[in-house]
Specification:
Elements lengths: L1 H12 L9 H8 L4 H18 L10 E5 L8 E5 L6 H15 L3 H4 L4 H12 L4
Antiparallel strand pairs: 1-2
Helix pairs in contact: 3-4, 3-6
Length: about 130
């Protein structure tokens, strides 16, 4: 991951107009996220698609929805599924669930993927 971060940093330095800015300011000017946020963004989109039924077979047991009105944030809390054979899926769920719980209700209750992406972009800046 560190290698990719250096490549992204170097690529943004090649833009002459932005060369005098800091790395964070260059990313902001270009409308990009740091690589950690991009990975999280993709993971949250995949989780949303799993929950909406886009991956019927592969995403079936990944998350268990624990709906509750007693929560402060979004009301769509998730529990991690149990996996014995494919450990990578477990890592995906552990990465996603913590951030999913921190999303506002209007983001997780989005009616479509396009709306979810737009709302997630606005919210992601304060998550990581």
């Amino acid at each position: 991951m560190e290698l990719l971060q250096r490549v992204q940093r170097r690529a943004t330095e090649m833009i002459r107009k932005l060369k005098h800015l800091s790395y964070e300011e260059r990313l902001r000017e270009l409308g990009l996220f740091r690589l950690e946020k991009r990975r999280l963004w993709g993971d949250l989109i995949a989780a949303f698609q799993c929950l909406k039924g886009a991956y019927k077979r592969t995403g079936e047991g990944l998350f268990i929805r624990a709906c509750s009105d007693r929560t402060r944030r979004n009301g769509f809390k998730l529990k991690e599924g149990r996996f014995r054979l494919d450990i990578r899926k477990k890592f995906f769920t552990l990465r996603v669930v913590r951030h999913w719980h921190r999303l506002p209700r209007e983001v997780v209750a989005a009616p479509s993927l396009a709306v979810f992406k737009a709302r997630l972009d606005g919210t992601l800046g304060s998550l990581v």
